Amino acid sequence: MSKASKEASGSVSSVMRETAEKQYAAELAALAKVDDRERPPRWNLSPWAVVTYLMGGKLKDGTEISAKYVGNRRIIEIAVATLATDRALLLLGVPGTAKSWVSEHLAAAISGDSTLMVQGTAGTPEEAIRYGWNYALLLAKGPSREALVPGPVMRGMAEGKIVRVEELTRVPSEVQDTLITILSEKTMPIPELNEETRAVKGFNIIATANDRDRGVNELSSALKRRFSTVVLPVPDSMDDEVTVVHRRVGQIGKALELTGEVPAMDEIRRVVTIFRELRDGKSVDGKSKLKSPSGSMSTAEAISVVTSGMALASHFGDGKIKAADVASGIIGAIVKDPVQDKVVMQEYLETVVKERDGWKDLYRACKDVL
């Protein structure tokens, strides 16, 4: 059977990215099987099992659960404990600290459904958080339950599930405040019908926001009080960040069916070292002070650079990633401002990369691109 035939028959997925609950269905099922602890209403797993799903571990039946988050376990425990109460959860941090990733996996583990999501943008309307209307039915029959189109939040309230609101601080302030009644009263009024939708047990909201975004809409104090905030930091150590990048690149490469090898830890370490040094404003050994570029230099950017290099090596090389494969991605990630950031990168190349043992190939490759 050809690959196309297999995809058509469903034996091979043609979806670019499966939801967390489908991608890790076997792990979730294994956890549910051995999980004998108390579960909050309508939770698929107990809080202990949810934390185990995110942090990884070995179950008593021998099943290995992969780590979805590399970092302080206590942070995830606090997040899960918050969701077990009636308090909403706000995941806060700089870009690239896995806020959306953690949000998705929390929803998958708790509700078995991570698709109830509102993507925050500067143009997000109030209807995205509340509800909309089927205008053909609205014109034909007037306001009615039949004509009402529930949004993700209303569906989550009715079904007792976790709802995700991504980039909450990108949403206009007047639209943000739509959440106040929902979070405080656990109800969504429908004045057109003189009705309301009340939240079923199990409903809660996970919002994400970054604190380095330009043009951000500050949350009102009334809305802030209705969230418990958990800050997700950048990985503490070089080893943790290298592990995160290596793991995610392997997952992305598999999903995209890239034929090249997953880069060795040493090659990933070079990319991560560059990002950490420019982010921290100093070299790893602490001997050189460095200027920082205008970009965030996040772990997510490092993952993108290595994935792009892996694609170049797969399609235009021998499958083994080399300095030339990551150089363009590094320059693209760092040089956001063509004047200021270019000066920062040139100085970094000459004072740090050029002088570092074993980095001459990366120095030449970056100079060729810059």
Notes on the structure:
The protein has 370 residues and is of the alpha/beta class. The chain has two domains: 3-231, P-loop containing nucleotide triphosphate hydrolases (Rossmann fold); 238-369. Helix content is 48%, strand content 12%. It contains 18 helices and eleven strands. It has helices at residues 3-9, 20-23, 25-34, 47-55, 73-83, 99-111, 126-129, 135-141, 152-159, 173-176, 178-185, 221-224, 238-255, 265-280, 299-316, 323-334, 340-353, 360-369; strands at 57-58, 64-65, 88-93, 117-119, 131-133, 148-150, 162-166, 187-190, 195-198, 204-210, 227-231. A hairpin with a 4-residue loop joins strand 8 (187-190) and strand 9. The protein is globular and about 70 Å long.
Strand order of the largest sheet: 4-7-10-3-11
What Rg is obtained from the alpha carbons, in whole angstroms? 23 Å
What is the β-strand count? 11
- What is the CATH homology-level superfamily of the largest domain? P-loop containing nucleotide triphosphate hydrolases
CATH topology of the largest domain: Rossmann fold
| Low-confidence blocks of residues | 1-11
Largest sheet: 5 strands, parallel
Question: Judging from the principal axes of the Cα atoms, what is the shape?
Answer: globular
Secondary structure tally, helices: 18
Q: Which structural class matches the secondary elements?
A: alpha/beta
How much beta, percentage-wise? Answer: 5-15%
